[in-house]
Structures are given as structure tokens and as C-alpha cells.
Design goal:
Layout: H1 2-29, H2 34-39, H3 45-55, H4 61-73, H5 87-122, H6 127-141, H7 144-158, H8 170-200, H9 203-210, H10 215-227, H11 229-244, H12 247-253, H13 258-268, H14 271-299
Length: 306
């Protein structure tokens, strides 16, 4: 296990280096000029040039990237062009809100996906199975903003059960978490259905049935634990995706997380913030997968971490 962690940490460093290099190149390939965005439309060419020199944007690209890497090694993610604040501090200030939304969204999608997947597996080939699979297909295909606006209209505007936007109470997290949960539950439902069908055909399940065990005990005690392994891997991936992939949901609900921070940075071409959020998201994905690799052998001893 120790060797696995050390190897993954080395891989993490290489992955983050690759992500940083690719993101850096893509951002500087954009036609937008950060100096012009900061200076404003009415700024003179000399003013724009001064801002470029102040930000170091007049240096060769490799020099800029090397300077950025040196800052990362020192724990410095740079300074926001627009907000004139340390990027690390901005991300840390927004991180708790995103972690709350991430945990709530994953909880909703896992619970909903498990329930629908088990029902579909137990009713394989029937009308309920087809309905669940159709619903899961619609869920994974629906755009985030459509689901978010629909939930807002029904439960916030029409029924008035939840606030329109904001952050701070349990009521504020329900609709954003439900939006993420509905969109992600379809994947979990399909995965659980497939895993449950495979497990239910195993010899030990047939033996449990022959012993006269109840269907509920067979499903919950024998089948479900062995069908959870792919779910653990998906949760590890979702941790990273939720860290930086909830831009639309946070924007619609006014949720003050790093997704909203990234959206604001994109509008302002604030490259240090975009780079910082991208690296944090990449790090979360790698650590989430590492956590899944550590937990999986604990659930099923037949699995050996490599």
C-alpha cells in the first residue's frame, strides 16, 4: 500500500505538470488579451503595454511558464489579474461552499442511482426496467442549465419551498444538489444495474436463495456489497469533476464556489485563477482515484492494489 501511494504521488506530480503545460498553452493561444481586458476599451496602447510588462506578459511563453512553475513549487498559485489577490486565498475562500455542494450532490446521485439500479436489475426486461433506463438516459442527456431552471421554476417560484439562490442554510443546498444528483444518478443507475445483474447470477447468490433467505437480505447482504466496487471508482472521479465542473450549476443558483470563481475568471481572462482552479480540479481527480484504489481492497479483499 505504501508503494502504491508513493507511485501515485509521483504520477500525480507528472499529471499536474502535464495539465499545467497544456492549460497554459491553450490559454495563451486564445485571441483575448488579459492586459486589454484589465485596461479597458478606452485605454491607450502605452497603458496596455505597461500592464503587460507589469504582469510579465511581455516575456517569452517558456519564461512565463517556468516562472509559474517556480511559484507552484513554492506553494504560490499566482496573483489574480482582476482582483489583485492571491489565487490560493481566493480558492480556499470558495472551497468550503464547493465541498458542501460536492458532498450533497454525490450523496443524492449515489442514493438515487443505487435505488433505481437495484429496482431495474430486479425487474430486468420488464416495464419498470425500461422506464428506469429511459429516465436515466434522459437524466444524463439533459443540459445542466435546463434541469436547474426547471427545478427553480417548480420548487422555488411556483411552490416556494426553497430559495431562488444564495448560500448559508440547508434549504439553499437542496436544489443545486438535486440538479447535480439527477444529472449523475443516470450513470450510477446504469452501472448498478449491470453490476447487480452480474452478481445476482453468481453461484453464492443462488445458494443463498436455496437456503431460503429473503430477497431483501440476499440483495442487501450478499449482492449489493459486491456490486459497489464500480460505484467507488465513479465516486472518485466525481470528486474531481464536481470540484471544477459545476460552473453552470453554481452560476444559476448563485452558489459561491470555485466553479463560479472560474466562470468569473473566464469572463475576465484572469489566467492565474483559471490555472489555479484547473490544477486544483486535476489534483482532486487524482486523489479521488487514489482514495478509490485504497478503499476497494478493504471492501473486497480479493482485489489487490497495484
Amino acid at each position: 500500500m505504501a508503494l502504491l501511494i508513493v507511485r501515485r504521488l509521483v504520477q500525480t506530480a507528472l499529471i499536474l505538470l502535464g495539465v499545467a503545460a497544456i492549460t497554459f498553452l491553450l490559454l495563451y493561444a486564445l485571441p483575448a488579451d488579459p492586459a486589454r481586458m484589465i485596461a479597458g476599451r478606452s485605454a491607450t496602447a502605452q497603458t496596455v503595454a505597461n500592464i503587460r510588462r507589469e504582469l510579465g506578459l511581455d516575456q517569452p511563453l517558456l519564461v512565463q511558464f517556468w516562472t509559474y512553475l517556480q511559484g507552484i513549487l513554492q506553494g504560490n498559485l499566482g496573483r489574480s489579474y482582476a482582483q489583485k489577490t492571491d489565487v490560493g486565498a481566493l480558492i480556499l475562500a470558495r472551497l468550503p461552499a464547493t465541498l458542501i455542494l460536492m458532498a450533497a450532490g454525490i450523496f443524492v446521485e449515489v442514493v438515487l442511482g443505487l435505488i433505481l439500479g437495484i429496482i431495474a436489475a430486479l425487474r430486468r426486461g420488464g416495464a419498470i426496467d425500461r422506464m428506469v433506463m429511459m429516465a436515466s438516459f434522459v437524466g444524463v442527456s439533459a443540459p445542466q442549465f435546463v434541469v436547474a431552471l426547471l427545478l427553480l421554476y417548480v420548487f422555488a417560484v411556483t411552490l416556494g419551498w426553497f430559495p431562488m439562490s444564495g448560500f448559508g442554510t440547508a434549504a439553499h443546498v437542496v436544489l443545486p444538489a438535486a440538479t447535480l444528483g439527477i444529472l449523475g444518478a443516470g450513470w450510477y443507475a446504469r452501472m448498478v444495474r449491470s453490476a447487480m445483474i452480474d452478481v445476482l447470477n453468481q453461484d453464492y447468490v443462488r445458494t443463498a436463495r436455496a437456503k431460503g433467505l429473503s430477497s431483501a437480505r440476499i440483495v442487501l447482504r450478499h449482492a449489493l456489497p459486491n456490486a459497489l466496487l464500480p460505484i467507488i471508482a465513479m465516486i472518485g472521479i466525481d470528486i474531481g469533476q464536481f470540484m471544477g465542473g459545476v460552473v453552470v450549476v453554481e452560476a444559476v443558483y448563485g452558489w459561491p464556489g470555485i466553479g463560479q470563481l472560474a466562470w468569473q475568471a473566464i469572463q475576465q481572462v484572469d489566467i492565474p485563477i483559471i490555472m489555479g482552479v484547473t490544477l486544483v480540479s486535476a489534483l482532486a481527480i487524482v486523489l479521488g482515484n487514489l482514495l478509490a484504489d485504497i478503499i476497494a481492497p478493504l471492501i473486497d479483499p480479493r482485489i489487490h492494489a497495484r
